[in-house]
TrEMBL record:
Domain of life: Bacteria
Cofactor entry: pyridoxal 5'-phosphate
Coiled-coil segments: none
Organism name: Thermodesulfovibrio yellowstonii
Keywords: Aminotransferase, Transferase
Family label: Belongs to the class-I pyridoxal-phosphate-dependent aminotransferase family.
PROSITE patterns documented for this protein: AA_TRANSFER_CLASS_1 (PS00105)
Positions of the Aminotransferase class I/classII large domain: 31-374
Name recorded for this polypeptide: Aminotransferase
EC number(s) per entry: 2.6.1.-
Length: 402
């Protein structure tokens, strides 16, 4: 009776299969350790919460707010970029606050893409990157992000094989889900050169800027001269300040692109609850030792998971950044595919992880662990995984004897 053409273009939600199985097992009383969804479990720092509570008691903050973000928050964003990356951001024309980076990125694509426009995204990718373009009516062309392949060769190949020529390039470093990182600014210089040469807009998702390990520092795309000529960068408060449910992000960079996002948002929302914006100012301007403590917590969890997987016989390299571990499926299980392997782990190891295929075809053969449980639970998870990985060889041996 009703037709939903944009919804028809979206594939089935692969992660729902694992989520459903997890729910069914928990209903039966099974203790399932959930390392699937990247939903931060750490509490928001107390001084940020206290500011929210105080601001929420003032009736003047209960009215509609500003869609593009209140002035002082945009100024705090500008100060943060200057302090962190020595990048100048005009808070009036080059910054807009978003209701999480996911909302901002998807609405920017809605403002920029019309039917038939081509958007380039890596594969695998965080789902909103390709599907935001699809929802906006565009077409997606992907290129592989893999350590064994040259990023720019893959990018160039995808660009040349696309017609019409791509309009937008979406990148994300440190990368979700693969945890790939940019080692230095030369990488972003090449991105800027590519964008200028091919008249293409760049959107950089910088959500994991602070979750970096082993003395690695993640550079900002906007640190490269000329980056603001071709693109913008999104940042989220979710990871650095453990403010997942608060839904605070921002987009900075090219004033035309920021202006387009600002305008379309003015038709769609009145901004987030003002006390949340006020508390976000305190987060950006206040003491940053909480960010370092959050970073260290994820680093310790990473170390525990990597050690446990290696002891289980699953050799996985430690990531330099993000709140994830991207693991190639052990050889003896590869034929199962990532979704069936995830179902195997949840049934036999009582551990839920995300199947790589859920992030695009380039993710097949891998699974993603999210570091969203404490160290004790992660150790428990790796013990369960070790037992599960040893199960199949034992079964084969029994069958052979029989």
């Amino acid at each position: 009776m009703f037709d939903f053409p944009r919804i028809k273009r979206l594939p089935p939600y692969v992660f729902a299969v694992v989520n459903q199985l997890k729910t069914e097992l928990r209903r039966k009383g099974e203790d399932i350790i959930d390392l699937g969804m990247g939903n931060p479990d750490l509490p928001t720092p107390k001084h940020i919460v206290d500011k929210l509570c105080g601001a929420a008691k003032l009736s003047k903050n209960h009215r509609y707010s500003a869609s593009r973000g209140i002035t002082q928050l945009r100024c705090a964003i500008s100060e943060w970029y200057k302090r962190r990356f020595d990048v100048d951001i005009d808070p009036e024309t080059e910054a807009v606050v978003t209701i999480g980076s996911k909302e901002g990125l998807s609405h920017l694509l809605l403002a920029s893409v019309q039917p038939g426009d081509v958007v380039l995204t890596p594969s695998p990718a965080y789902p909103i990157h390709p599907y935001g373009a699809i929802i906006a009516g565009g077409d997606v062309r992907t290129f592989n992000v893999c350590p064994c392949m040259d990023f720019f060769e893959e990018l160039e190949r995808a660009f040349k094989n696309s017609w019409p020529r791509p309009k937008i390039l979406i990148i994300n470093f440190p990368h979700n889900p693969t945890t790939a990182v940019v080692e230095n600014l030369d990488f972003f210089r090449k991105v800027v050169d590519f964008a200028k040469e091919n008249n293409i807009m760049v959107i950089h998702d910088f959500a994991y800027a602070d979750l970096v390990f082993d003395d690695y520092k993640a550079p900002s795309f906007l640190q490269v001269p000329g980056a603001k000529d071709v693109g913008v960068e999104f940042f989220s408060m979710t990871k650095s300040y453990s403010m997942a449910g608060w839904r605070v992000g921002f987009c900075v960079g090219n004033k035309e692109i920021v202006g387009a996002l600002t305008k379309i948002k003015s038709y769609l929302d009145y901004g987030m609850f003002q006390p949340i914006q006020i508390a976000s100012i305190v987060a950006l301007r206040g003491p940053q030792d909480c960010v370092e403590e959050i970073r260290k917590t994820y680093e310790r969890r990473r170390d525990v998971l990597i050690k446990g997987l290696n002891q289980a016989g699953w050799k996985v390299p430690p990531p330099k950044a993000t709140m994830f571990v991207w693991a190639e499926i052990p050889e003896q299980f590869k034929k199962m595919g990532s979704l069936e392997f995830c179902k195997f782990l949840i049934n036999e190891a009582k551990v839920a992880v995300s199947p790589g295929i859920g992030f695009g075809e380039g993710g097949e053969g891998f699974v993603r662990f999210a570091l969203v449980e404490n160290e004790h639970r992660i150790r428990q998870a790796t013990k369960g995984i070790k037992k599960a990985l040893n199960l199949v060889p034992a079964v084969k041996k029994i069958r052979k004897v029989g």
